[in-house]
């Protein structure tokens, strides 16, 4: 059948119909492709319908970002968990706060994109900075770690620690050696200062320069997250990402 053309395909009536038919076909194809393109461009959002759904959507969100962006998102998640917390001691005394995660805040961030979570964390009532009540390391940072089998041995690994102190982001790199010794891998690091680390269960502590600065946290996926403080009473939140699998590789 020639769609009403009784002449040869090269005749004028059929030649006029060919562009119309082609245009209609293209419009039909584009109608099926456009929704797919729009869907692919839609950013991942947190599904807060359940703990499992929140964790899945957060991990998907993390997987879509490069390394620096992952650390930024992990820091935002930690800061939102810390909303309303006034000290590192308060954080460490609360079992829920000692294990900050996306599931704990799933209702608050339900439906949010990564950029919306980062914006929320940057809001005035949420921040990584926590002012200590008085000079000295917060007792919670120095309290014994929870007893239990080590979830993931950290000896021989190198970590980059990202700290958020009143909105100021700083980074340092540390190597965790055997016998609880730690070394800062920085050009201006003092090789004579005493740095130590401990691990028990999924908890972790790093002490810098004879406990002038103490970091305490736990494993959260592939990252370490927690609170830190210095001898002056300043306290803040931090995250850390492993640089390699073994310092000897």
Describe what you observe in this structure:
The protein is an alpha+beta fold and 249 residues long. The chain has a single domain, classed as Beta Barrel (Lipocalin), CATH 2.40.128. 32% of the residues lie in helices and 24% in strands. Strands 1, 2, 3, 4, 5, 6, 7, 8 and 9 form a nine-stranded antiparallel sheet that branches. A hairpin with a 2-residue loop joins β7 and β8. α3 crosses α6 (114-121). The longest helix is centred in the N-terminal third of the chain and has 30 residues, at 12-41. The chain is globular, with a radius of gyration of 27 Å. Residues 1-39 have low confidence and may be disordered.
Topology record:
Elements: H1 12-41, H2 51-63, H3 67-81, H4 88-93, H5 106-109, H6 114-121, E1 129-131, H7 139-142, E2 157-165, E3 168-176, E4 182-184, E5 196-200, E6 203-208, E7 213-220, E8 223-230, E9 234-242
Helix pairs in contact: 3-6
Quickly describe the structure.
The protein has 249 residues and is of the alpha+beta class. The chain has a single domain, classed as Lipocalin (Beta Barrel).
Helix content: 25-40%
Q: Class, according to the CATH hierarchy?
A: Mainly Beta
How many helical elements? Answer: 7
**CATH superfamily name?**
Cathepsin C, exclusion domain
Gap between N and C termini? 72 Å
Kindly report the CATH topology.
Lipocalin
Largest sheet: number of strands, sense, barrel closure = 9 strands, antiparallel
Q: Could you tell me the radius of gyration in angstroms?
A: 27 Å
Instruction: State mean pLDDT (0 to 100 scale).
Output: 78
Q: What is the 3D shape?
A: globular
β-strand number: 9
Question: Helix/strand-derived class?
Answer: alpha+beta
- Uncertain runs are 1-39
From N to C, what is the helix and strand string? HHHHHHEHEEEEEEEE
How many domains make up the coordinates? 1
